Amino acid sequence: QITLEETGPTLVKPTQTLTLTCTFSGFSLSSPGAGVGWIRQPPGKALEWLARIYWPDDKRYNPSLESRLSIMKDTSKNQVVLTMTNMDPVDTATYFCAHRPETTDDYDYWGQGILVTVSS
Amino acid sequence: QSALTQPRSVSGSPGQSVTISCTGTSSDVGGYNYVSWYQQHPGKAPKLMIYHVNTRPSGVPDRFFGSKSGNTASLTIAGLQAEDEADYYCCSYAGSYLRVFGTGTEVTVL
Fold first, then answer.
1. Which residues, other chains included, contact A93 with Cβ-Cβ below 8 Å and sequence gap of 6+?
2. Cβ–Cβ of A107/B100 closer than 8 Å?
3. How many CA atoms lie within 13 A of B83 on its CB side?
4. Using CA atoms, how far apart are residues B30 and B51, in angstroms rounded to an integer?
């Protein structure tokens, strides 16, 4: 059974750096083909793909946010960490992490999401 | 990398069919057979319904059908049921291992 859970601050101030952790079980990022992605959704708006990390350590970022994003994995802890610098109120959103299966580059299991509000 | 264009809403009566379009460019939808569709109920995480244009993951009813022509992909829901009322998002590979989502469509069952 694959599960994922996002943790981190639910309130950050403008210009601060956001650090979110995705803790997962049921798969390992040391297995060929395994991957985790981050997707966000502002309240009442559409999904936006942010970044992903695949075995062994292949990282990709949304070009419009690449300068602000960093994704890392800790295989021993079954965690993926996403950092986003210089947070702005427009970054207020629910942030999801999700599992990428071997058969497709899409996401078949998702965490419940964490709502992050950017406000002073 | 612009969001794919979907109609804001579609609706149908129980038992009817509805089709949601997803329009991109030759750099995403038109360039690859890697279009997927997600269903999202209010307050919930998205659920993968279709991948690789027309492949259903295990457990997804065969009432959901994906297709593509040129730069436009489509999701058809046949035999509409009350539980199908949700938001639907398309997603496409956009080259360089990147993904782009659509603007989202609200499906209403009348």
1. A40, A41, A42, A43, A45, A48, A115, A116
2. no
3. 4
4. 15
Q: Which tens digit of pLDDT belongs to each residue from B77-99? A: 999 999 999 999 999 999 888 99
The answer to whether B21 and B6 have CB atoms below 8 angstroms apart is: yes
H-helix or E-strand containing A54? strand A48-54
Q: How much of chain A exceeds pLDDT 70, in percent?
A: 100
| Torsion angles phi and psi, residue A90, rounded to 5 | -70, -10
For B67-82, the pLDDT digits (tens) are 999 999 999 999 999 9
Q: Across the interface, do B101 and A46 touch by the CB < 8 Å criterion?
A: yes
Out of A62, A64, A106, closest to residue B48 by CB: A106
**Strand-pair partners of A36:** A53, A99
pLDDT at A93 over 80: yes
Measured CA distances, A56 to A97, A101, A119, B53, B91 (Å): 18, 14, 37, 27, 24
The reply to whether residue B38 touches residue A47, judged by beta carbons under 8 angstroms, is: yes
pLDDT at A56: 83
Angstroms from A13 CA to nearest CA on chain B: 25
CA distance B102 to chain A (A): 7
Q: What is the C-alpha to C-alpha distance for residues A105 and A96, in angstroms, rounded to an integer? A: 16
Q: How far is the first Cα of chain A from the last one, in angstroms, to the nearest whole number?
A: 40
Name the minimum distance, in Å, from the CA of A113 to any CA of chain B: 7
